[in-house]
Amino acid sequence: MYTNILTAQNNGITRITINRPSKLNALNKDTIQELHAAFRVAELDTDTKVIIITGSGEKAFVAGADISEFAHFSVGEGGKLAAKGQELLFDFVANLTTPVIAAVNGFALGGGLELAMAAHFRIASDTAKMGLPEVSLGVIPGYGGTQRLPQLVGKGRAMEMIMTAGMIDAQQALQYGLVNHITTPEELLALAEKLGSKIMRNSSVAIGAAIKAINAGYEDGVNGYNVEIEQFGNCFGTEDFKEGTSAFLEKRKADFPGK
Among the four residues 58, 130, 225, 234, which has the most C-beta atoms within 10 Å? Predict the structure, then answer.
């Protein structure tokens, strides 16, 4: 079905693996299109409660965008490239109501770090290296990097990372709050699945509402508190709310229908 990615669904978790190891999993146009399709399928699949995105091999999560594809682009073409990529993949992932965990297994550079930042949170192997090296090519991050990096690590650190085009290691990424946990390469996917199983114990409907409310706080001209109030109210009309509150009052474990 796919040429550049692999997908597998097991016990409520869909794992999407970027599979271009010879290109260090670089994002080209076809891979972005395939990722969009795979994320869309997972979002619409009622059996999928959590999505894990990772890279194949031990070297790279995604080592950047495929520069050969856009080296000769005009101003207009460059703008369209960023707009289309953000719409198809990066904003699309950030706004999914199914939680997305990025398991960063090596280099996450340029578009790779931007993809990891679009996920709802990130974990990394202790061998991972992250950075936005675009200014060393005479361009800037175009897939949301100038917006999401400051939100995650603060303006000063983001300015330094982007201006120097340098890489930080996993330990520094943890210290910056760019990743939530670091572990060995061997344990990385097991940790992602452990976190996924913790998430799956809870109401998928409520989690989707929480994602919308949290994201709203980062949108221009949107009052996140108002979105929270609206989403909170909506929860009262769900079967998950009825089950969750009944289970609590009856002192039993909730069995959420996901509706």
Answer: 130
